[in-house]
Protein backbone atom coordinates (compact mmCIF):
# COMPACT_ATOMS: atom_id res chain seq x y z
CA UNK A 1 0.00 0.00 0.00
CA UNK A 2 2.84 2.41 0.81
CA UNK A 3 4.42 1.70 -2.56
CA UNK A 4 1.16 2.72 -4.27
CA UNK A 5 1.06 5.90 -2.20
CA UNK A 6 4.62 6.87 -3.09
CA UNK A 7 4.20 6.00 -6.77
CA UNK A 8 1.12 8.26 -6.98
CA UNK A 9 2.03 10.99 -4.50
CA UNK A 10 5.40 12.12 -5.87
CA UNK A 11 4.26 12.47 -9.50
CA UNK A 12 1.27 14.52 -8.31
CA UNK A 13 3.53 16.77 -6.21
CA UNK A 14 5.72 17.32 -9.26
CA UNK A 15 2.69 18.22 -11.42
CA UNK A 16 1.28 20.61 -8.80
CA UNK A 17 4.67 22.29 -8.34
CA UNK A 18 4.97 22.78 -12.09
CA UNK A 19 1.47 24.31 -12.31
CA UNK A 20 1.97 26.60 -9.30
CA UNK A 21 5.10 28.15 -10.76
CA UNK A 22 3.73 28.33 -14.33
CA UNK A 23 1.98 31.45 -15.64
CA UNK A 24 -1.15 29.56 -16.70
CA UNK A 25 -2.55 27.16 -14.07
CA UNK A 26 -5.38 25.98 -16.28
CA UNK A 27 -9.11 26.10 -15.71
CA UNK A 28 -11.65 23.48 -14.59
CA UNK A 29 -15.41 23.78 -14.85
CA UNK A 30 -17.65 21.14 -13.26
CA UNK A 31 -21.37 21.48 -13.95
CA UNK A 32 -23.87 19.40 -11.97
CA UNK A 33 -27.48 20.12 -12.81
CA UNK A 34 -27.78 23.93 -12.30
CA UNK A 35 -24.63 24.26 -10.21
CA UNK A 36 -21.25 25.25 -11.59
CA UNK A 37 -17.95 24.67 -9.85
CA UNK A 38 -15.06 26.71 -11.21
CA UNK A 39 -11.47 26.27 -10.11
CA UNK A 40 -7.93 26.00 -11.39
CA UNK A 41 -6.26 22.75 -12.38
CA UNK A 42 -3.78 23.27 -9.52
CA UNK A 43 -6.53 23.59 -6.92
CA UNK A 44 -8.35 20.57 -8.35
CA UNK A 45 -5.22 18.43 -8.16
CA UNK A 46 -4.51 19.57 -4.60
CA UNK A 47 -8.10 18.69 -3.67
CA UNK A 48 -7.79 15.24 -5.24
CA UNK A 49 -4.46 14.60 -3.51
CA UNK A 50 -5.96 15.68 -0.17
CA UNK A 51 -8.92 13.35 -0.69
CA UNK A 52 -6.61 10.50 -1.68
CA UNK A 53 -4.43 10.99 1.41
CA UNK A 54 -7.48 11.20 3.66
CA UNK A 55 -8.88 7.97 2.20
CA UNK A 56 -5.46 6.28 2.50
CA UNK A 57 -4.95 7.14 6.17
CA UNK A 58 -8.53 6.23 7.09
CA UNK A 59 -8.02 2.83 5.42
CA UNK A 60 -4.74 2.30 7.26
CA UNK A 61 -6.34 3.27 10.56
CA UNK A 62 -9.22 0.82 10.12
CA UNK A 63 -6.76 -1.87 9.04
CA UNK A 64 -4.64 -1.34 12.16
CA UNK A 65 -7.76 -1.56 14.37
CA UNK A 66 -8.73 -4.83 12.68
CA UNK A 67 -5.20 -6.23 13.04
CA UNK A 68 -5.11 -5.21 16.68
CA UNK A 69 -8.37 -7.05 17.34
CA UNK A 70 -7.13 -10.11 15.46
CA UNK A 71 -3.87 -10.13 17.44
CA UNK A 72 -5.81 -9.87 20.69
CA UNK A 73 -8.01 -12.84 19.76
CA UNK A 74 -4.96 -14.80 18.62
CA UNK A 75 -3.13 -14.15 21.90
CA UNK A 76 -6.20 -15.18 23.87
CA UNK A 77 -6.47 -18.40 21.85
CA UNK A 78 -2.78 -19.19 22.41
CA UNK A 79 -3.19 -18.55 26.14
CA UNK A 80 -6.11 -20.99 26.28
CA UNK A 81 -4.13 -23.62 24.37
CA UNK A 82 -1.15 -23.28 26.73
CA UNK A 83 -3.44 -23.57 29.76
CA UNK A 84 -5.09 -26.63 28.19
CA UNK A 85 -1.69 -28.26 27.70
CA UNK A 86 -0.79 -27.58 31.34
CA UNK A 87 -4.10 -29.06 32.49
CA UNK A 88 -3.42 -32.12 30.33
CA UNK A 89 -0.06 -32.63 32.02
CA UNK A 90 -1.74 -32.15 35.40
CA UNK A 91 -4.39 -34.75 34.53
CA UNK A 92 -7.33 -32.34 34.64
CA UNK A 93 -8.74 -33.68 31.37
CA UNK A 94 -12.22 -32.17 31.63
CA UNK A 95 -10.81 -28.63 31.72
CA UNK A 96 -8.56 -29.49 28.79
CA UNK A 97 -11.59 -30.16 26.60
CA UNK A 98 -13.41 -27.02 27.82
CA UNK A 99 -10.50 -24.68 27.14
CA UNK A 100 -9.69 -26.12 23.73
CA UNK A 101 -13.25 -26.12 22.44
CA UNK A 102 -14.05 -22.62 23.72
CA UNK A 103 -11.44 -21.16 21.35
CA UNK A 104 -11.75 -23.58 18.44
CA UNK A 105 -13.03 -20.93 16.00
CA UNK A 106 -10.17 -18.55 16.82
CA UNK A 107 -7.46 -21.23 16.90
CA UNK A 108 -4.54 -20.79 14.52
CA UNK A 109 -4.55 -24.52 13.79
CA UNK A 110 -7.69 -26.27 15.12
CA UNK A 111 -6.06 -29.66 14.40
CA UNK A 112 -4.09 -29.24 17.63
CA UNK A 113 -7.30 -28.51 19.56
CA UNK A 114 -9.16 -31.51 18.14
CA UNK A 115 -6.31 -33.97 18.69
CA UNK A 116 -5.50 -32.87 22.23
CA UNK A 117 -9.22 -32.95 23.06
CA UNK A 118 -9.39 -36.47 21.61
CA UNK A 119 -6.53 -37.59 23.85
CA UNK A 120 -8.06 -35.88 26.90
CA UNK A 121 -11.47 -37.50 26.44
CA UNK A 122 -9.77 -40.83 25.81
CA UNK A 123 -8.05 -40.50 29.19
CA UNK A 124 -11.53 -40.28 30.71
CA UNK A 125 -12.59 -43.40 28.77
CA UNK A 126 -15.04 -41.35 26.70
CA UNK A 127 -14.31 -43.28 23.55
CA UNK A 128 -17.22 -41.93 21.52
CA UNK A 129 -16.20 -38.31 22.16
CA UNK A 130 -12.59 -39.13 21.38
CA UNK A 131 -13.58 -40.70 18.04
CA UNK A 132 -15.74 -37.68 17.27
CA UNK A 133 -12.82 -35.27 17.77
CA UNK A 134 -10.64 -37.41 15.53
CA UNK A 135 -13.36 -37.35 12.87
CA UNK A 136 -13.66 -33.56 13.19
CA UNK A 137 -9.91 -33.21 12.75
CA UNK A 138 -10.02 -35.37 9.62
CA UNK A 139 -12.93 -33.37 8.22
CA UNK A 140 -11.10 -30.10 8.89
CA UNK A 141 -8.04 -31.35 7.01
CA UNK A 142 -10.19 -32.28 3.99
CA UNK A 143 -11.95 -28.91 3.93
CA UNK A 144 -9.21 -26.44 4.82
CA UNK A 145 -5.92 -27.82 3.55
CA UNK A 146 -5.83 -27.60 -0.22
CA UNK A 147 -2.06 -27.98 -0.48
CA UNK A 148 -0.95 -31.61 -0.58
CA UNK A 149 2.13 -31.03 1.61
CA UNK A 150 0.15 -29.30 4.37
CA UNK A 151 -2.61 -31.90 4.26
CA UNK A 152 -0.14 -34.80 4.46
CA UNK A 153 1.69 -33.23 7.38
CA UNK A 154 -1.49 -32.76 9.41
CA UNK A 155 -2.85 -36.16 8.37
CA UNK A 156 0.36 -37.78 9.65
CA UNK A 157 -0.17 -36.17 13.06
CA UNK A 158 -3.80 -37.26 13.05
CA UNK A 159 -2.99 -40.88 12.20
CA UNK A 160 -0.23 -41.06 14.82
CA UNK A 161 -2.72 -39.86 17.43
CA UNK A 162 -5.33 -42.35 16.22
CA UNK A 163 -2.92 -45.31 16.45
CA UNK A 164 -1.75 -44.14 19.88
CA UNK A 165 -5.37 -44.04 21.10
CA UNK A 166 -6.15 -47.46 19.59
CA UNK A 167 -3.11 -48.91 21.30
CA UNK A 168 -4.12 -47.43 24.65
CA UNK A 169 -7.58 -48.99 24.27
CA UNK A 170 -6.13 -52.38 23.51
CA UNK A 171 -7.48 -52.36 19.94
CA UNK A 172 -4.28 -54.02 18.81
CA UNK A 173 -5.62 -55.24 15.44
CA UNK A 174 -6.73 -51.73 14.45
CA UNK A 175 -3.45 -50.28 15.69
CA UNK A 176 -1.47 -52.82 13.65
CA UNK A 177 -3.53 -52.04 10.56
CA UNK A 178 -2.85 -48.34 11.03
CA UNK A 179 0.87 -48.56 11.72
CA UNK A 180 1.92 -50.02 8.35
CA UNK A 181 0.83 -46.96 6.28
CA UNK A 182 2.58 -44.74 8.83
CA UNK A 183 5.81 -46.68 8.46
CA UNK A 184 5.52 -46.29 4.71
CA UNK A 185 4.83 -42.55 4.87
CA UNK A 186 7.29 -41.68 7.65
CA UNK A 187 9.76 -44.57 8.08
CA UNK A 188 12.15 -42.50 10.23
CA UNK A 189 9.61 -40.73 12.42
CA UNK A 190 10.59 -41.46 16.07
CA UNK A 191 7.02 -41.76 17.40
CA UNK A 192 5.95 -43.96 14.49
CA UNK A 193 8.89 -46.27 15.27
CA UNK A 194 8.03 -46.33 18.99
CA UNK A 195 4.42 -47.23 18.27
CA UNK A 196 5.47 -49.86 15.74
CA UNK A 197 7.83 -51.43 18.28
CA UNK A 198 5.08 -51.68 20.90
CA UNK A 199 2.58 -53.09 18.42
CA UNK A 200 4.95 -55.65 16.92
CA UNK A 201 6.06 -56.84 20.36
CA UNK A 202 2.46 -57.25 21.52
CA UNK A 203 1.42 -59.09 18.37
CA UNK A 204 4.72 -61.02 18.26
CA UNK A 205 5.31 -59.77 14.70
CA UNK A 206 9.04 -60.33 15.08
CA UNK A 207 9.95 -60.31 11.35
CA UNK A 208 8.29 -56.89 11.00
CA UNK A 209 10.16 -55.61 14.04
CA UNK A 210 13.46 -56.93 12.69
CA UNK A 211 12.88 -54.99 9.46
CA UNK A 212 12.64 -51.65 11.29
CA UNK A 213 15.43 -52.41 13.75
CA UNK A 214 18.17 -50.85 11.54
CA UNK A 215 16.14 -47.65 11.35
CA UNK A 216 15.59 -47.71 15.12
CA UNK A 217 19.37 -48.02 15.52
CA UNK A 218 19.99 -45.20 13.04
CA UNK A 219 17.52 -42.90 14.83
CA UNK A 220 19.01 -43.90 18.21
CA UNK A 221 15.59 -44.77 19.53
CA UNK A 222 17.25 -46.76 22.34
CA UNK A 223 20.82 -47.09 23.63
CA UNK A 224 22.93 -49.46 21.55
CA UNK A 225 23.06 -52.12 24.26
CA UNK A 226 19.24 -52.22 24.39
CA UNK A 227 19.03 -52.45 20.59
CA UNK A 228 21.49 -55.35 20.62
CA UNK A 229 19.56 -57.11 23.39
CA UNK A 230 16.30 -56.68 21.46
CA UNK A 231 17.92 -57.94 18.26
CA UNK A 232 19.21 -61.08 20.01
CA UNK A 233 15.80 -61.67 21.59
CA UNK A 234 14.09 -61.43 18.21
CA UNK A 235 16.53 -63.80 16.53
CA UNK A 236 16.05 -66.32 19.35
CA UNK A 237 12.28 -66.06 19.06
CA UNK A 238 12.10 -66.67 15.32
CA UNK A 239 13.36 -70.28 15.26
CA UNK A 240 11.19 -71.11 18.30
CA UNK A 241 8.13 -69.76 16.54
CA UNK A 242 8.97 -71.65 13.38
CA UNK A 243 9.63 -74.90 15.23
CA UNK A 244 6.43 -74.73 17.24
CA UNK A 245 4.53 -73.96 14.06
CA UNK A 246 6.05 -77.02 12.36
CA UNK A 247 5.11 -79.23 15.31
CA UNK A 248 1.51 -78.05 15.17
CA UNK A 249 1.37 -78.83 11.47
CA UNK A 250 2.82 -82.34 12.05
CA UNK A 251 0.25 -83.07 14.75
CA UNK A 252 -2.59 -81.97 12.52
CA UNK A 253 -1.30 -84.29 9.79
UniProtKB/TrEMBL annotation:
InterPro entries: Heme_biosyn_assoc_TPR_pro (IPR005254), HemY_N (IPR010817). Pfam families: HemY_N. Keywords: Cell membrane, Membrane, Transmembrane, Transmembrane helix. GO terms for biological process: heme metabolic process. The keyword Cell membrane applies. It is a multi-pass membrane protein. The chain crosses the membrane at residues 41-62. It is found in: Cell membrane; Membrane. Residues 26-123 form the HemY N-terminal domain. GO terms for cellular component: plasma membrane. This is Protein in late step of protoheme IX synthesis with tetratricopeptide repeats (TPR) domain. It comes from Hamiltonella defensa subsp. Acyrthosiphon pisum (strain 5AT).
Amino acid sequence: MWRILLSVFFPLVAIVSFLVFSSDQGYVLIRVDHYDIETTVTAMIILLVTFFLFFFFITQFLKSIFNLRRRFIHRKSLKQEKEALIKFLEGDFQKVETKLMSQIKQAENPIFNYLLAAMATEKESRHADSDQYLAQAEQYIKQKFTGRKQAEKNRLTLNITRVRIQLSRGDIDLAQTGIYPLLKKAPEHPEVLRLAEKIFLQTKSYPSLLKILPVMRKMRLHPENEIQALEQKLHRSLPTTTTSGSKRRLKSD
